[in-house]
Amino acid sequence: MKKFANQVIFYSALLAIWAIIAKLHLWPPYLFPPPWGVGHALWDGFADHSFWIGIAVTMKRMLIGYSLSIVLGMILGLAVSSNKFLEQTLGGLLVSLQSLPSICWIPLAVLWFGLTEKAILFVVLMGSLLSVTIAMEDGRKQMPKIYGMAGRNLGATGFRLFWSVLLPASLPFIVNGMKQGWAFAWRSLIQAEMIFLSLGLGQLLMMGRDLSDMSQVLAVMILIIILGFLVDGLIFRTMERRLQEKYGLTPA
Amino acid sequence: MSTSPQNAYPAAVPPIPRPGVRANVFHGKPASSVTTFPSRVATEVVVPKVALDGISLSYKTTSGERLLALDNINLQVKPGEFLCIVGPSGCGKSTLLHLIAGLHQQTSGRILVDGKPVAGPGPDRILIFQELGLFPWLKVGGNVEFGLKMKNVSKAEREDRVEYYLRLVHLSKFKDSYIHQLSGGMRQRVALARALATEPDVLLMDEPFAALDAQTRDLLHDELERLWAETGRTIIFVTHNVREAVRLGDRVALLSFRPGRVKEEFSVDLPRPRHMEQTDVARTSRDILDCLRAEINKSLEVEYADEKVR
User: Fold this and answer.
1) pLDDT for position A250
2) Beta bridge partner(s), residue A43
């Protein structure tokens, strides 16, 4: 509770300082809007549905691209972790590819797919695919061997062994990579949307710039922060904590 | 003084109705009956339930040399027999169980179950691991059900069997608990129920009670002895505790240290039910322990030698 109180004090102070500086009129309001101006822009954005549409479009792309990367990443990770040759070759390549910022895939995506939805999805996919793949590979290695043996001992083989034993057993070790993958995908998607100008939050941000509307720019930035925090901080962190507790990895 | 939950279950088990039961499951005894234990006088020649025929296992260590872990193991286990295997740590007794379970492959020799060679894991042999290997993502009921699902047992029958075996180990109330919510003794019983539920002919147990406090262990010994008598299963039980082996086994096989060989076999003809504290159990244990001591010393020498190198 103390923590919550501290946070309330901190954010109130931040808003107050912001309001005071804005009141001093050191810069014109279109460059340094007051908090209520940004609040107004947020209100207007939701009132004329443009923010709702932006959020819906962005989240839809996120879900499609991220789901694809999970499926592909699992297959790739599984292949790499179960084959010595692939591990030594493809595994190394994947790690080195991870040092490439995913925004670098945009020129390639545009040439291949044009300024289309497919190109955006491709960038999102490349943003998180590597993280998920590497997490899956690590998870298979870190997973206690006993689960696989227990599963085989009880008659599980092939796909069933993977689906009902190996996958759930490695879950607490992959969830961190999945979280990282989401964060990368989120960044690459916003970046791609800013360049492509095709609805979504990224475009709303650029639109604010084009209209010299700093209030809208800040409003959209706040939206992006809140959405990112909700998914990462609440969904993933809760999932991670629950898993660790359930699997006895932390004292419950 | 309050009793902890794992010790609070009733001493007497009510008879458990068991629908759709298989013929070889011993059940439906009158409520008041005392468990009768199979007599040891059966002398007719039978095909051994499990026969180990010249089992050897060697492997390459990280330093590249070949290590002989098991050397020419010959053992026969009769149907319904309770065999205990004792030996110092590192003698390969756990490995031997893994071989029988079909989880690893021996370098040479044959393992026969009902006269047929073992090729991989099978539902006729279920191993209870030392670390248990219960699935934390499943509830207690789900864990017990797992082997049945893999055997494609129908949903209705699965439910019956899960209920039956959870009652057998006194865990009915914990069907919907997760593993991390249970105490060590309760987890042990879940593992037992999970193994029994698939109704294997042979139960392989790898030091299952080593990590438990003495009181819980004693209770589980009684449970196991009762379950064994009631279900007629063949049990191969590995332990480093000689007294435990004498407490439970019809026969005790002593393995030597590196390479693992059957150094000696002792048959235990003490009347059942037995207790760890009985004087005749203690006396028999002493004989075996004398024989085992030399092997323990060997294993300690190797351990201390390792220490010096570091």
Assistant:
1) 62
2) none
Which of B129, B137, B144, B161 to mutate to probe the A interface, most A CBs <10 Å?
A: B137
Using a CB-CB cut-off of 8 Å, the residues of chain A touching B136 are 246-248
Assigned token pair, B278: 């009985």
Task: Pick A153's closest partner by Cβ from B127, B151, B180.
Answer: B127
> If you ran DSSP here, which 8-state letter would residue A236 be given?
I
User: Number of residue pairs across A and B with CB atoms under 8 Å?
Assistant: 59
| Residue B132: how many other CB atoms lie within 10 Å | 21
Using a CB-CB cut-off of 8 Å, the residues of chain A touching B137 are 168-169, 171, 246-247
What CA–CA distance (Å, rounded) separates B164 from B233? 17
Best B97, B146, B148, B151 residue to mutate vs chain A (most A CBs within 10 Å): B146
For residue B213 the two structure tokens come to 């406090």
For chain B, the distance separating the N- and C-terminal CA atoms, rounded to the nearest angstrom, is 47
C-alpha dist (Å) from residue B120 to B69, B95, B123, B180, B268: 20, 14, 10, 31, 32
Listed as ranges, residues in chain B with pLDDT below 50 are: 1-33, 309-310
Query: Among positive and negative, which fits the CA dihedral A156, A161, A164, A168?
Result: positive
Calculate how close chain B gets to A153, using CA atoms only, in Å. 6
pLDDT value, residue B114: 83
pTM: 0.72
Residue B68, beta-bridge partner list: B58
Please enumerate residues of B whose Cβ is less than 8 A from a Cβ of A. Answer: 98, 101, 103, 121-123, 126-127, 129, 131, 133-137, 146-147, 149-151, 178-180, 194, 198
Domains in chain A, start-ordered, CATH in brackets? 57-200 (1.10.3720.10)
Please state the ipTM of this predicted complex.
Answer: 0.74
Using a CB–CB cutoff of 8 Å, tell me whether A147 touches chain B.
yes
- Asked if B157 contacts B145 with a C-beta cutoff of 8 angstroms, the reply is no
Block mean pLDDT (10 aa), chain A, length 252? 89 93 87 89 89 91 92 88 86 85 87 88 90 87 87 86 87 84 90 82 86 88 91 84 79 44
- By CB neighbour count within 10 A (0-12 exposed, 13-18 middle, 19+ buried), where does B241 fall? middle
With beta carbons less than 8 A apart as the criterion, state whether B76 and B48 touch: yes
Give me A145's structure tokens: 């061997």
| Topology of the domain covering B44-124+200-310 | Rossmann fold (3.40.50)
Tell me, yes or no, if A150 comes closer than 8 A to chain B by beta carbon. Answer: yes
Residue B178: strand pairing partners: B139
What angle, 0 to 180 degrees and rounded to 10, lies between the N-to-C axes of helices A105-113 and A117-142?
130
What are the tokens at B60?
């390459």
Instruction: Sort B136 into a burial class: Cβ within 10 Å, 0-12 / 13-18 / 19+.
Output: buried
Question: For residues A180 and A240, what is the distance between their CA atoms, to the nearest angstrom?
Answer: 12
